[in-house]
Amino acid sequence: MTSDLSTVRTGDPYAALPQRPMHPASFTEEETYRRTRLPVELASTLIPDAYSSPEFFALEREKVFASGWVAVGMAGDVDRPGACVVVEVAGRSVIVTRNRHGALRAFHNVCRHRATKLLDSTARDVGHRGRIRCPYHNWTYDTDGTCLGTPLFEGSDVPAGQEAIFDTSVAKDFDRADYGLLDVAVDTWGFFLFVNLAPDPAPLATQLGDLPARFADYRLDQWVPQRRRTYDVAANYKLVGENFMEYYHLPWVHPELNQVSKFSDHYRWQGPGMYTGMCTTPVSRNTEAGGWDGLSPLSSLGEQDADSGRFTWLFPSTALVVLPNHAFVLLNRPVAPNRTVETAVLLAHPESLEDPAAEQGVEQLDKFWDLVNRQDLEIVERVQEGIENPAYRGGRMCFRFEEPLHRFQNMVIDKMLGVDRVPAGDEDTMTRMFPDP
User: Fold this and answer.
1) Which of 259, 281, 306, 328 could form a disulfide bond with 301, CB atoms 3.0-4.6 angstroms apart?
2) Which residue has the higher pLDDT, 78 or 173?
3) Which residues contact 265 (CB under 8 A, 6 or more apart)?
């Protein structure tokens, strides 16, 4: 007897969806996301093209990454005048530095003459005498963005006897004051550096929502990076984020982590703001496989914070984990639809580093987080392989575990549609995910 395959297909809730790849024009239409806009208990996942289409990726760069605040590094890396970091946002290179007065500044990494990239990505100082100098024609800028010379100016290395040739003071309709570096909005929160490429951005506080209040007792602005690692991930940045936001996968992907992060100890922990959040409490002790112990906890924490781990995804691309004795950060930079460069940073408060055994504790924590992160990256790369199969056109949300994913995916949709909206949070500070036994 032959099977009736058409009958099987009739029950497929995704059978009526358009074939992949979708037309790029549909990426900015509300109807495209109708299934993900449903309440989480009925919702389907974001369209697969959002993770695999070059056209979606190009549009997402502009609508998501070039329109809002993006965490790009550590505030401590620009702790003095002339110190700098060179970061990339939405395919643009940006210099973040402090001027001679200590004020934080950011500029497009572009010379105003013929667009030469001014500083390499490895630069940690703007250069000689705190000036940003173009390697092509020696146009030079102050760290407040002012054009100092074009040349001729002091220290421009013009060959002796040829000064007159390079003198631009006689140029017609040219004023150096009109050719300063192109500004980028920059701000900090805690130990993070943020930039915003939008021409007239809303304050960072609008995007952060209630997070500064939630983390107030941690004194995050005092925490110091202890270890850094870089991972090249063959997956879309959203898959990295969505994996971070849920613990549905813990028993099968993280046997070691699952011993110190129990299902029954998880809560949703999110208020108004462009973020998703969950927490675990109480904080479990280490097992033979490792864990979160290793440093002394911060003394300023209240009873609840002192026994909780906070897991927050800062929209659009940054993971923040804060425990009583250390923090772990993942800065994710999208490079292609199926590639993300991830910088992992382990931080601690100076108070937690006073213990003579602190160095050993940092090493243990770094090793444990590297194990957990590599397990995550292996699985999200497998998801990327599957999501690129045209046969897959979406899946059903798991209401109990994936509400943060639903919240995040709808933030992405809002940006793709040009909707300016900060999601509201739960009425309760913490929402238990499982009933008491």
Assistant:
1) 306
2) 78
3) 280, 281, 282, 284
Q: Which residues pair with 346 in a beta bridge?
A: 227, 328
Same fold, 70-185 and 208-432: no
Q: How far is CA 310 from the centre of its chain?
A: 16
Distance (Å, whole) CA 330 – CA 377: 12
Spatial contact of 192 and 312, defined as CB atoms under 8 Å apart:
no
The residues, any chain, with a CB within 8 Å of residue 59's CB and separated by 6 or more, are 24, 27, 28, 416
CATH number of 70-185: 2.102.10.10
Q: Which residue has the tokens 């590639």?
A: 339
Determine the Cα–Cα distance for residues 78 and 97; give it in Å rounded to an integer: 6
Q: What is the pLDDT of residues 50-74, one digit of tens each?
A: 999 999 999 999 999 999 999 999 9
State the pTM of this model: 0.89
Hey, where are the domains in the chain? Answer: 70-185, 208-432
The per-residue pLDDT for range 387-408, each reduced to its tens digit, is: 999 988 888 887 777 788 999 9
CA–CA dist 116, 134 (Å, integer) = 7
- Tens digits of residue pLDDT in 280-326: 888 777 666 666 788 999 998 998 898 888 999 999 999 999 999 99
Alpha-carbon Rg for the chain in angstroms: 25
pLDDT for the residue 262 = 61
